[in-house]
């Protein structure tokens, strides 16, 4: 059980970040939306500030723990490119990702977000499980 | 005044989000794949605790938001208004999930991991930016 404390507390901090952005700035902390709008040149200042904050995150973690968080990537360059294209295209087409639909949408009892989260969890589990069996 | 304050709040919220992703393990694709691959024989349920923890804070937060007329630093809340479950929502989410299951990166962790000094997150993030642009600038414009 001790193993899960960092995940639970990390998750609570993510929730706190989303509520800070919502209750103070009135904005949804959906990362695909923030990045997509930044790329499209909309509200560049605020969206760039949030992205800059994200980049600081691992270094804040390093300042507290003495090391950067582990990032272990098994996928080849080709798989990373295909996966990145799918994630970018799919999140914009589906109007959200793990944060916008998975956290904010579920917390707002949005039917759309419940459907979106169920679908991306289902295809994510299917693809990862098939890839795992294939390896 | 409010504009620069909002800018600082966005920066702080981003940093807190990136720190939470780092602490929770969500920034690590190996952990995400360990959660999504249910037949590996060593399934890692910890990422369910990330979503659970986030909802534990967001649910009361949303209850507070519903009682407020406006956020602290703006005239109104900017919330999604769509309610219909259409093909775009379902197909887009399915495409996103497939990419998530392939590499273990979703948008937040992919951007956050750019600062840890590895090349692979840049490859993924560049492709993700291309995919977003392809959707927003080319296909959604038609």
Any overview of this molecule?
The complex is a heterodimer of chains A (135) and B (142). Chain A has 135 residues and is mostly helical. Chain A has one domain. Chain A has helices at 5-25, 31-39, 44-65, 77-93, 100-107, 111-134. In chain A, helix 2 (31-39) packs across helix 3 and helix 5 packs antiparallel against helix 6 (111-134). The two termini of chain A are 30 Å apart. With 142 residues, chain B is mostly helical. Chain B has six helices and no strands. The longest helix of chain B is centred in the first third of the chain and has 23 residues, at 2-24. Chain B is globular and about 50 Å long. Chain B starts with a helix and ends with a helix. Chains A and B meet through helix 1, helix 2, helix 3, helix 4 and helix 5 of A and helix 1, helix 2, helix 3, helix 4 and helix 5 of B.
Could you give a quick summary of the protein structure above?
Chain A is mainly α and 135 residues long. Chain A has helices at 5-25, 31-39, 44-65, 77-93, 100-107, 111-134.
Mean pLDDT of chain A, nearest integer?
Answer: 96
Helix content of chain A: over 70%
**Based on the structure, what is the oligomeric state of the protein chains?**
heterodimer
Q: Give Rg of chain B in angstroms.
A: 18 Å
Low-confidence stretches of chain A: none
What structural class do you assign from the helix and strand content of chain B? Answer: mainly alpha
What's the arrangement of secondary structure elements?
The complex is a heterodimer of chains A (135) and B (142).
Chain A: H1 5-25, H2 31-39, H3 44-65, H4 77-93, H5 100-107, H6 111-134
Chain B: H1 2-24, H2 29-36, H3 46-67, H4 87-103, H5 107-112, H6 120-139
